[in-house]
Design a protein that fits this description.
single chain, 147 residues, alpha+beta, Hypothetical upf0131 protein ytfp, 3-stranded antiparallel beta sheet, 3 helices, 8 strands, globular, AH_C
Length: 147
Amino acid sequence: MPAVGASTATASSAAGSGAPELLLVVAGAHLRGQPLHHQLAERSARFVQATSTAPEYRMFALDTVPAKPGVLRVPEGGAALAVEVWALDAAAFGTFVAGLPAPMAIGRVRLAGGRELPGFLVEPFALEGAQDITAHGGWAAYREATA
């Protein structure tokens, strides 16, 4: 995972402490205003930017509680999805990732412009029978359309 200052990260040090931050791309239930965002807030995560993925991903509505999406990189037929980038210190990043339940996973997510950062993906087995919601362009838009 790139620390700040590495070629793929652009955040600053944590609260001026000089401690490196790790960047994390979130696409669903951890977005601002979503039900699991508190897990980032409890770790003093810092919002870096709202952006989108490269047009290489599909998004699926998973049958989970709370509701969350699964993001999968695909060789063709993908689209750009709305995401957020957050910065966490290394310890917070570690506890966050250690607590992720299956089928969620952290992998490399390519953003618009080509930069790759650690971010949320889903294990493909979880997509059997899941609704493809890619056309909404992101989780918040899907939730708004189905509210």
